[in-house]
Here is the input.
Amino acid sequence: MKRLYVLFTISGALGLLYQVIWARMLVLIFGNTTYSTTTVISVFMGGLAIGSVFFGWLSDKKINNLRLWGILEFLIGISALFVLIAFPYVKTFYTGSTSMRFIISALLILPPTFFMGGTLPVLIKHLNQNNLTTTVSKLYFVNTLGAFIGTLLTAFILLEIFGMELTVLFAAWANISLGLVSFTIKLKKNNNQINEVTHANAHRANYSKSTIIFIMLSFFMSGAISLSYEIVWTRLLISSLGTYVYAFATILATILLGIAAGAIITPAIIAKSNKYALMFGMIQIGIGLLAVISILILGLDLAMSAPIKLISVLLPASILMGMSFPVVSALFENSQRLGSQVGLAYSLNTAGSIVGPIVTGFFLIGFIGTNYTLLLLAILNLTVGGLLVASENKKFAPFAFLVIFPISAIIITAKTSPHIYLENSIKEKIAYYESQGWDWKILEDEAASILAFAGDKSPSDKGLIIDGVQTTTLTIQTKLLAHLPLFLHENPKNMLIIAFGMGTTYRSALAHDIYVDAVELVPSVPLTFEMFFKNGNEVLNNPKGKIIINDGRNYIALADKKYDVIAIDPPPPINAAGTTVLYSQEFYEDAKKILNQEGILAAWFWYGSSEDDFKMLFASMRSVFPHILVAVSPDGRGVFFFGSEKKIVINKEILNKRYQGLVYQDLNEWTNSPYSAQKLMELFVGDEKTVDRFVKNATPLTDNHPKTEYFFLRHKLNPRPNINPDWVHPIPETFDKMHRIIRL
Here is the structure.
């Protein structure tokens, strides 16, 4: 028996491993957008829901459920291998519509998740003898504990060491091994017959059919609300935890740990009462109240470290969430159709987990904001809980609905003081802006939350904060990202900019009177443009400019036009989650395909990480472009790379001809000491030989092995200093001679 619980713990770990990796793989199909995350969640949960219903029904037949579970684990491994093998061929359908990509992705992921969905109800049927609640709680506990372990192992260790493909191969082998090992476990004689004799055709609690239907619908709502909380809490916590993959993994792991804890303590609580509707209702009320308390914890100026804040916000409510499934399953104690009914309950909760994130991510957050979404979810919890309590005994109803009053008080407070419940670090920034008399604006959409600020003393007093991380201010670097490659190209007609940001590069490129496309992932970001530039409206209405809301990686892969210049400026830091899709070898290969014959790709690298990280980044671009020019930023904070299939030679005559009029005015807009053509020439310090000297045998960054995102062990075991801006020196005399650069 204990052996089987250990095996099911491993099964839970493998399930979350697949979910993490598939989410990352689909970024390469849908782009780094809500679509990729939603696809994984919806298909993953959909497969679980369908599988739990079908195999729950099958488990009630006269079959060997232990052997069935082993077969399911074996099939999970085989179908996961199929996903890995078939994934590269999805590129064949890549140019299709979003719906076509969703269908193809769903067809890939659905089989393994379908088999996963059957494992829990099948094992519940196999192991249950006399106490259903204990069986469900133990299995739910070990499976969720496994998911907790799998999340941390995948994010902190496996992906860094093995990369995505080898990690999936390992997981598939483990699933197949689980299936084979299950056949070595000895069976108890007449297990199914014992269940049938012991169980009567009645529920312990004697609930009416209509009440059970209402509880099942409430369980559906519970699943929808719970997954919605995860989205909202992640957005609220990320400003204090950072945008590294480890922050997201820690949030998920904390929730899973709470659910596991809730599952294991449930039998002791249920043993004292069989009023399941009352208990389930009180759990929902508790989750709603804790959600409201989480707003207070995040919004009030409490002396809490980030880990304590994380635990305080997530763990208590997660424990209650973990109690829900065992409590609802207890309804079917002594039912002859145990597998079917538990499978149906599990599928309804899982189906809610599909609907909730879609409604919350795509609609609620964008329309009413994160805090009001959290309050709405809390009210739904309290309402569902109140109705459940009332269904158990009407005399409880007045007490159950008393909890609405504190919610109403918080809503009124939030209306009269709109920013009182904002996350404290954001609130502090706003207080500073207001003390300085600066303009500021908060916007939210399905991709991110944005805080834009605009002072009037210097360019650095204007900037963008996305998900709590300051991504940029008005700086000369973003102007040079447009001007330098356009000076280098002999006859540029158009330009593509990846990452619109504050729009500085876009605005500067239009000064050259060329066609400019700019791609931005976050829909709300371009809405802040006019805060930063007095001629913002004029720039936005320029007929030669176009702003496209899309993921940069996805746009480049699907673009049906070619460009003379492509400029890329991923949001910092370079180690943030999802950034490698704009730094990988495969990304540069895709970008090269949409460059014209003499096209130039310009990339900006902000110095802010270790030397070995940058060697991998530089090696990626170098592996794709045979010719590179290197230029340093005027303040030494970063470096520009310009890659091309053709040798790039600085043409002084072209530079002097173009560096006048609107272009000259734009580049010198924020300086009292105008940049001369000579000063611009001196920014160039090397070429591909300079890069080769620095990277030596460094491994390029790839989609399969995103090492700059998964760096925990590398940075802990072998800490390296941050990159030294002097890496470009010495500058060879032959370089200056070739480009006619005279350094003063």
Observations:
- Residues 510 and 522 are 22 Å apart (CA to CA).
- Residues 189-203 have pLDDT under 50 and may be disordered.
